[in-house]
Amino acid sequence: MGVGWLVGVAWLWQSNTWTRKEKMVATLLFPGGIALVLPMLFLSLTTRTNDCASFGGPDQPTVTHCVGKWLAVPTFSTLIQVLLVGVPVIVAVNLEKVRRSRHPLNT
Questions:
Q1: Domain extents for the chain?
Q2: How far is it, in rounded angstroms, from Cα 85 to Cα 4?
Q3: Which pTM was predicted?
Q4: Cβ(87)–Cβ(30) under 8 Å?
Q5: Is 68 helix (H, G, I), strand (E, B) or coil?
Q6: How far apart, in whole angstroms, are the C-alpha atoms of residue 104 and residue 107?
Q7: Whole-angstrom Cα Rg for the chain
Q8: How far apart are CA 62 and CA 65, in angstroms?
């Protein structure tokens, strides 16, 4: 997962298209890309619960049957993880806009 990000950063720093400030922002804001954050986002949005039912009577053994299910549970960490996904997308879109404005013939 991190190899693609490393290659991208190497290409970014070798290019003359972006300023040093743009390169620093692209390198330092949440390195590793979205692939590292998506599993954490999914796990924070859901939780597993058990739905159990018991059956039995006075002269019969009690039998309990449980079925697991996933429920959506938004938390504060979800907001942070949405930002972790959104910021790299915003940085990438900004870098592409800058590239197109500085090199309009190479779109």
A1: 2-53+63-106
A2: 16
A3: 0.52
A4: yes
A5: strand
A6: 6
A7: 24
A8: 10
Alpha helices for 15-75 (secondary structure H): 20-28, 38-45
pLDDT one-digit tens code per residue, 2-53? 677 788 889 889 999 889 998 888 888 765 556 666 666 666 666 666 677 8
Q: How many residues does the chain have?
A: 107
And the tokens for 36?
């590292």
Tell me which of 85 and 63 has the higher pLDDT: 63
Q: Say if CB 73 and CB 46 are below 8 A apart.
A: yes
Find out whether 9 and 27 touch, Cβ atoms under 8 Å: yes
d(CA 19, CA 101): 13
Structure tokens at 83: 């930002």
